[in-house]
Structures are given as structure tokens and as C-alpha cells.
Amino acid sequence: MRYIILRDDDTNALTPVKFLELLYRPFLVRGLPVNLATIPHVRTDARRADGQPEQFLCGQTSAAPNRLRIGSNPELVGYLRQNPGYHIAQHGYDHTLYEFGRRDRRDIETRLEEGARLLAEAGFPPAQTFVAPYDRFSPSSLRAAARRFPIISTGWFEWRNLPAEWWPAYALKKARHQAHWCPGRTLLLSHPGCLLSRFRPREHLLEDIKRTIAQRRLTVLVTHWWEYFPDGRPDWEFIGLLHRTAEYLAGDPSLRVIPFAALTQSLIPLH
Asked: CB-hemisphere CA count at 13 Å for 252?
């Protein structure tokens, strides 16, 4: 059996319900869980590294406050709570660029605590998984996140970004060529890049996904809902590829799609 976790990043108070419904109804009706890495208190002026506005804002920045709590969108919150196939992970705090690449321990802990409080205030159960914006961590933020979450999902790990006390476990992980590891009580998951992306060649996208899954016992498959709606319009070709991915995942009996939380509840082999 091979296991797949679908992680969609950047759900926030400005995310249109109709976008998520269009993308993920084929997953939900097949019983395939969707993990939404959700921004608790999104900055409406969030910028990418190149200075351009983040595309997950859907262009709705002019009349919005500087930050919006996830609970300020009752339609979205109600939709997510009414569909148990969605599972909420905590995605940073407000998505300030590289906000968890900082080393200020007090600021990091405040962001973690306030983010958790706002998700709880919206009625979501405590998140089991933490995802940093842009997968960027500092040693301080990794240590703080590991104290609060049983799972951390990111793209990669490097010596310089790890707490020093994790170095022996990291050396063992590297020697064993493991994608996922556990330096203490927190499970650290890496992913093979954003395979479901509109910035990748489409002609072999599904085959690349199949090949990647075949090479791993557990694959974290990452995508971003806003990539399917450039300029707010559906990219039907790309949406079709996502839905074909759902068909593939549901149709192969050797595959099992799971939420992050399943890793804390059962003995699922990681390697």
C-alpha cells in the first residue's frame, strides 16, 4: 500500500467557496480527504518576493482591512465545517513573506499561538499539522512549531535551518535517504516539490505524479487552489488534470489517500 496526502496551500478569508467546490468536489464524493493549509489572519497587502501581490488574495485588497481573520468569512467557514472531507492545517499566521524564517522566539511563538486561537475561534478543531509560508523555517521557528504540532510539513530540510539538537537525527535521515523523519515527538514530512502546478509542463504532469508516488511509501502532493484561476477565471485544462488525478487516486486499489492526522492515529509506514 502506498499513501498520499493532498496538501492545498493558502486558503484564507478571501478564498471563494465556489473555487474550492469546483476543484475538490470530485475528491470529496470519492472519499478522498483534502488537507487545506489555512492562513488564520491573512494580510490583505501580502507580497511575494518579487514585490507583486500574492495571487491568493484574488485581487480583493483595495477595500479590505490590513488583515482578515479566517472567521470573518462565515460562508467559507460554514462550507468547510459542513464538508468533513476537508482537514485544516495551520499555514503560518498572516503570510508575511518568510514570517517563520525569523529568529525572534517571542514573535514566532505569538504567531503560532494567535494563529491557533483564530482557527479555534472559527470553530475548527486543533490543527495537527503546521505549514510555514514558502516552506521557510529558522531553527527557532522549527523548535517552536515542534512543541505545538505533532506534524510539520515542508519542502526540504537543511542543516542551517535546524535546531542543533536535531543534527544527529538529520545525519541519520540523510544516510538512509529518508524523505520523512522524527527527531523527537514531531513527525517531519518533506514533499517532492509542487507537482500539481500550472507552472509545470502539462503534457506529462499526471505521469510525473504517478511515477513519484510509485517511488515512495508516503507522498505529500502539494498544490495551490489559486493557480487554477488565473485572473479569477477557471483554467479548465488544469482543473481537468486535477480531476483526472482524483480518478487515478480513487481507482488504484494499491493507493490510499489520507489526512495528515491519520499519521498520528495509526501505524502507517513512512518508508
From this structure: 17
**DSSP label at 128?**
S
Task: Annotate 48-69 with DSSP letters as a single string.
Answer: -TTSPBPGGGTT--SSS-SEEE
17 Cβ partners below 8 Å, 6+ apart?
Answer: 75, 76, 79
Instruction: Tell me which amino acid residue 9 is.
Output: D
Fold of domain 2-265: 7-stranded beta/alpha barrel (3.20.110)
How many Cβ atoms are within 10 Å of 66's Cβ, its own excluded? 10
| Sign of the dihedral through C-alpha 218, 184, 85, 74 | negative
Q: Tens digit of pLDDT for each residue in 90-142?
A: 999 999 999 999 989 999 999 999 999 999 999 999 999 999 999 999 999 99
Residue 82 and residue 6: Cα distance in Å, rounded? 19
What are the φ and ψ backbone dihedral angles of 251, each rounded to 5 degrees? -90, -10
Write out the three cell numbers for 35: 488537507
Select the more confidently predicted residue: 58 or 195. 195
- Tell me the sheet residues that pair with 42: 68
Q: Give the global pTM.
A: 0.95
* Residue 227, all three cell numbers: 493557480
Residue in the block written with cell 494567535: 114
Ordered by start, the domain boundaries in the chain are 2-265
